[in-house]
Each structure stands twice: as C-alpha cells, then as structure tokens.
Design a protein that fits this description.
alpha/beta; about 140 residues; globular; 4 helices; Rossmann fold
C-alpha cells in the first residue's frame, strides 16, 4: 500500500520533530518537514504531488505563498493552517487548526485521508503514486 505523503512547514526544527512529525509518522503518514518558505518551495518542486500540507502560521514562513503554489499545481490537495492564535485564519488554507493540539491535527488529517493503520477506516485506500519520486511504501 502507498502511504499518503504530507508536507509540514514549521520554522522550529525541534517542534516539528518532537510533535507534529512524530505524531504523524507514528500514525503511518510519510512526512516531509521543511523549516522555511524557500525550503518548502524547493520541496514542492521535488515532490509536486503531495497528498496534503500542514503549514504553521508563525509570521516567519509565508504560508500563503506556499499554499498558492500547492493549489496552482493541484487545487484538490488539502492545505491545513496550524495557528497558535485563536481566530487566526489563512486565506489560502482549506482548514485551520490549533498548533497546540497535535491530536486534533491528526484527527482532521485522518478525516480527509483515512487512517493508514486501519483497513476498515480507509487504511486500505490505495493512494496513487503521484509521480513525486518519494518512496512512500508502507514499512
């Protein structure tokens, strides 16, 4: 089975590795983590067909630019903005969640893509190899 590949853009490498990346990889999603706008755009060039993106709103990473690039390439790719501030929204994101609630983020992603660990909940869903060159096979 091909596991869904997610882009997580977050400026703090320690946070990305300890929270979002760990939670999402433990849930059997492939995660490409980036820490700047430029790194995100380069990753999108190398992996243009991601299944979903999580963009942390922090004022450092230009999530509107990244989201616009994703939507230009594939308007159906879900973009989730994660924000530490209540009420903050992104114009380009499809959904906004609290950046302090990794379980909420995981539940939203599972609602969109299914749960790769559970065949009865979408884990048997065959995600197409979208030609991005990633090794997205299940471990």
């Amino acid at each position: 089975m091909i596991r869904p590949t997610l882009l997580v853009a977050e400026p703090e490498p320690a946070n990305a590795l300890s929270v979002r990346k760990l939670v999402l990889e433990t849930a059997k999603f492939n995660v490409l983590t980036v820490h700047s706008t430029q790194e995100a755009l380069e990753t999108l060039r190398l992996f243009p067909n991601l299944h979903l993106a999580v963009l942390v709103m922090d004022g450092v990473i230009d999530i509107e630019r990244i989201a616009a690039t994703i939507k230009e390439r594939n308007p159906k790719t879900p973009v989730i903005a994660a924000t530490p501030r209540v009420g903050e929204k992104s114009e380009m994101a499809d959904l906004t969640v609290s950046s302090h609630e990794p379980e909420e983020l995981l539940n939203v992603i599972r609602s969109l893509l299914g749960d790769p660990r559970k065949p009865s909940e979408g884990g048997d869903r065959q995600f197409p190899d979208r030609g991005n060159g990633s090794s997205a096979d299940a471990a």
